[in-house]
Amino acid sequence: MGILLRKAIEKKRNFLINKLINERVYKKNDSHLFELTLTDLENEYMKISKIREKESDDHSPCLRIHFI
Q: Cβ(44)–Cβ(36) under 8 Å?
């Protein structure tokens, strides 16, 4: 694996780890985040993002105009 590819993967892993830590996710199935693969981190981040998106949709105000 080339040095640039290795650095890019490590940079993305660190980015995702920091994002997950900001969401208070520290482990997955008794494994620390730094032990997970890039794919595992991406999947976990997508799962958290979908949960956050659903929560924000559930709490958005209903703006309906009723005509009488």
A: yes
